[in-house]
Each structure stands twice: as structure tokens, then as C-alpha cells.
Amino acid sequence: MSDKSGNAPELEATDRAILRELARDGRCSFTDLAERVGLSVSAVHQRVRRLEQRGALQGYAARVDGDQIGLPMTAFISLTPIDPAAPDDYPQRLEHLPQIESCYSVAGDESYILQVRVASPLGLEELLRQIREAAKVSTRTTVVLSTPFENRPPAI
Amino acid sequence: MSDKSGNAPELEATDRAILRELARDGRCSFTDLAERVGLSVSAVHQRVRRLEQRGALQGYAARVDGDQIGLPMTAFISLTPIDPAAPDDYPQRLEHLPQIESCYSVAGDESYILQVRVASPLGLEELLRQIREAAKVSTRTTVVLSTPFENRPPAI
DNA sequence: AATGCCTCCCGAACGGCTTTCGGATTCGCT
DNA sequence: AGCGAATCCGAAAGCCGTTCGGGAGGCATT
């Protein structure tokens, strides 16, 4: 155990370098990866496997252009429970809606913020109806006009 | 040209299947991919290359656990320009800050919404200072308490 | 109807890559 | 000193990525 804090599972420099590279290029080959972090291929392979089963590497995804798959519209939807005494199971009530990409529980006036992706204003209207019905919440929607940049790799 | 609308570049069913699989598993091998979409390896390879240079496939990224890389805190920051007459170059003024993962231009009271990732409340405070200084904006911050789900693959 | 062009598909082949294994090294602990 | 755990490396086997040539189908022109 090299963890000083005893709470947050810290990571070593080499592991961080691996995560940095894979966050930038998720399809990077093990051979390239090994070269970039200065290790043998088999050592890198072993570390990646460990990072995966440790949960530090949660998966790999292609970034696809929303416009080209017919989902050009993005919005943020803030949720406020109608019945403050209702049990807080909103994520479970909403996860079946595939238009909802992300769900965050937040501090502030509202309880949750959803990030959604739809085909059109009509699609957004229909989604709002489904959200209100499924979760018994009132909603406040902020429509995204453009996305200067998105999902940049974190500075590891 | 199979595009009926003449504006939005629509995609074919096979290409959509490829994008769906790669959005779910960005490191999927071409062999597996070919099997899943019912094509030969070389045909899939050709289509993926075309999707990449067409911009439908914008890249590949590993999803990493923010907690384990020392960035356990997420927040949304809404921006309002201080000088309404100032030129709108906020994204360029902010892109050098690596803590900012995403930047959205939005409709509504505020002009932009940023999604950021920091190590601690002190890190957030310092980032807010940098944002206000770099972009001459006032900020409103919503701290994320937990993330029930995030960045789910879209329903293609 | 035939020709040529374009697009898309496939199979083969080569080189590179992934994955696993055994063994060497280091480090910490008894 | 001796032992165990962790980590590294190199080698080997098989699988995979990448490219190439060629064939099938659609479409327009002749």
C-alpha cells in the first residue's frame, strides 16, 4: 500500500501516463503505448489489465458526430421534484430513456441536471413529457446552440 | 448522392450499426465488428476509414475514473458576460484551461455553460478566478454531488 | 443491348500486434 | 540471509490489421 491518505486510491506516475495516452487515443496499440510510457509491451499490457479491473479504466468509446447520426440537438434539463417527500429514485426512473446521456445529482435550487440529445424540438418536447411523467418532476430546459469543445481529455 | 434532404448528411443502416458498436466498445476489433454488422473484415475496415475521414467518427477515448486520477469534483459553471458589447470569443479565451472539459453556447439567461473537473473546492475556487479573469464574465456554479450515469452511448 | 464507370464487396497474404508464459530482478519483511 | 510479493522483460504462438487485386451490381451513355 503506497496510499498515504488512506482514502482516495492514488495512482503511480506510469499508470497515469498510460491513462493519459488512452484518454487521448483510445485505440492506441499496446506497442505504441509501451513506447510512449517507456516500458516493454508485456509490462504495459499487464498494467492496463490491472487498471481495467481496478476500475480506473472504465471502458472505451468512439466519439461520434451527433449531427451525422440524426441527433443534432443537445440540451440541459434541470429537475425539481414535485413532491419533496417522494423517495429519491429519479435516476432509476429515467435511465430507460436513451436520449438522456448523463445524469448528475447537484447542489443548488434543483436536484438533478440531465444532458440529453434529441433529433428536433419536437423530440425534445416529447422527451420532456416522458421525463415529467416518469419522475414526477418539474423541468427547466437550457438548449445548446453550439459546442465550441466537448469531452476533452482531463489533464492527468 | 443518397441524401434526400439535401442538408443533413444522413447515414446508411450498416454505417449506423458500425457507429453503434464502436460507441459501445471503442476498442472492438475489426474482426468482431465485421461479425456483428454482417460484413467481411476488409469491407468494415473500408467503411470505418470512410466514417473517420467524413467526420462521423471523431475519435476514440478511454473513459477514466475521475476519483482515481485525483479529480473527484465535477461542476457546471454558467457564464454571463460583464460587458455585453464585448466580442464573443469566450471559447478561445477559455480553451487553455485544461480543467474545462466541455464548453457549450446556450440559449437562456446565461451565454455559456462549462463542465469542469477539479481536485478540490480550492481547485474550483482557483479555476473560477482564472475563468473570470480570462473571459471577463460573471459566473454561477452548480456543484455535482454524484453521477448516477454519464456519457451513455446514444441510441443510433 | 452493350459499354464503361463507379461503388461496394470479398478473399488472400504479409507483416505487425496481442496475449501468455517463464524467468530475472528488486524490494520489503521476518 | 532468506523468503514472498510485485514488477519487469523477452520469446513464441496465434490472431489481427492492412493492403491488394478482382468480381458483382447499378447507372448512364452510346
Q: How do the strands of the widest beta sheet of chain A line up side by side?
A: 3-4-2-5
Tell me roughly what share of residues is in helical segments of chain A: 25-40%
Mean pLDDT of chain A: 93
Most extensive interface, chain pair and sizes = A-B, 63 and 63 residues
Oligomer: homodimer
Total strands of chain A: the figure is: 5
Report strand % of chain A: 25-35%
User: Secondary-structure element sequence of chain A?
Assistant: HHHEEHEEHE
Distance between the termini of chain A: 21 Å
Class of secondary structure makeup of chain A: alpha+beta
The parts of chain A where pLDDT drops under 50 for at least 5 residues are: 1-8
State the helix count of chain A.
5
User: What is the C-alpha radius of gyration of chain A, as a whole number of Å?
Assistant: 20 Å
Q: Sheet with the most strands of chain A?
A: 4 strands, antiparallel
Tell me the overall shape of chain A: elongated
Can you give me a brief rundown of this structure?
The structure is a homodimer of 156-residue chains. Chain A is of the alpha+beta class. Chain A has helices spanning 13-24, 30-37, 41-54, 90-94, 121-135, and strands at 57-64, 73-81, 100-106, 112-118, 137-149.
